[in-house]
User: Fold Histidinol-phosphate aminotransferase from Desulfatibacillum aliphaticivorans.
Amino acid sequence: MTTCALPDFDRLVPPHIKCFEAYVPSKPDDVLMQYYGCSSLLRLNNNENPLGPPGESRQAILDFPPNKASVYPSGDAYHLRRKLAERFGMGPDQFLVGNGANEVIAFVIKAFCQEGDNIVTADKTFAVYEWVAQFSGFEARTVPLKDYGFNDEAMLAAADERTKIFFVCNPNNPTGTYWDRNKLLNFLNRVGNKSIVVVDEAYCEFVEKPDFPDAMELLSQYPNLVTFRTFSKMFGLASLRIGYLAGSPEVVDIIRRTCVVYSVNALAQAAALAALESKHHIENTRALVREAKEYLNHEMNSLGLFTVGEEGCYLMVRLPMSDSLAYRKLMSQGVMIRTMTGFRFPNFIRVSVGEMPAMQRFVHCLKNILRESGHD
Ligand SMILES: *Cc1c(COP(=O)(O)O)cnc(C)c1O
Assistant:
């Protein structure tokens, strides 16, 4: 048997792929527990809802007939889009559902960018906007944050006639800052109709501030505005992978051309549909996050640690040691957090807000590692 030579990568692989490094996801719990020698694992790394999905979604999952696993789902999430339309007072054709909000990021970039175009976002935000642009061959202009928030002036200054899309994460992951209504309106007015403005509202359901803008309500006024929402965070359906975008009928009509139909499975559609019927899930989750976050903030401050994170179900903490060292030491005690060097915040960790016992365990383990390294 002869073995052929490897493909001619020099010729085959575009330069923007050659220089791109694949994202390495965390290993499954059993593998991590064995590697770090811990008997349990508390995941505080992915901003998941500690309460899980709402009761209505749990029931929908239990009611899902196993037989239907062999049948293709609705290719365009028909019923879910109608429900969303009813909920937000818009048309079903103003929504596109994806395999997580992560997938709809690619839909938008593919729909509007061609060779030589760029997108503008922040340097310290959800990195997927930047990554999808780059591995698709487009420039991502990443503008430094100002006071831990998106810098509107600098973003406008970074844009040129090849800027097709602005990505604003509101509230921002990982810093928890947000643009209030005035700031967002002012930005939209200044962009005009020259570019698409995406407002990623993955964590909007956690925000209780009266001046927080609901981008969904601004869609009729700004036809170039696109909002992202997900069922992964507040609605606790991260494992089923379902999120969506909304925009004006005209913009969504363009984006629809690039979307992969049948990428959203039927179980996810059923659970998401039920989640929209939930009665107390949002208020219960908010109450839990409020209490646990206040506790966490208080404990970090009494340890003399600086924290960032006004809104959202997560808190950034600056440590007097490297974040990757802290990660390994916390892992050996069975606590998983997110290192922030990858988000360009060296020595910071991000902790997802969980139930009180989980928060207490995290604080206890953090105190251990600070003491061990002489920082208490
Ligand atoms: C988690 C997250 C998403 C996407 O989540 P999916 O699970 O892909 O729906 C999008 N944006 C931000 C800022 C997030 O934190």
Q: What stands out?
A: The domain at 11-52+281-372 is CATH 3.90.1150.10 (Aspartate Aminotransferase, domain 1). The first strand starts at residue 42 and ends at 43. The chain has two domains: 11-52+281-372, 55-275.
